[in-house]
Amino acid sequence: MVDFFAQHFYILCLFLIFMGFLSGFIDAIAGGGGLISLPALSMTGMPIALVLGTNKLQASVGTAITTYKYWQNGLINFKTVYRGLIMGFVGTVLGSCLAIFIHNDFMNYLVPVMLVAVFIFTFFNKNLGVKAGKKRMSELAFFSLFGFILGAYDGFFGPGTGNFWVIAIVYFLGYTFLQASGYAKVLNLKSNIFSLCVFLYFGQVNFILGFVMALGNFIGGYFGSKMVILKGSKLVRPFFIVVVGVSILSFVFTKI
Question: What distance in Å separates the CA atoms of residue 86 and residue 152, rounded to the nearest whole number?
Answer without folding.
Answer: 12
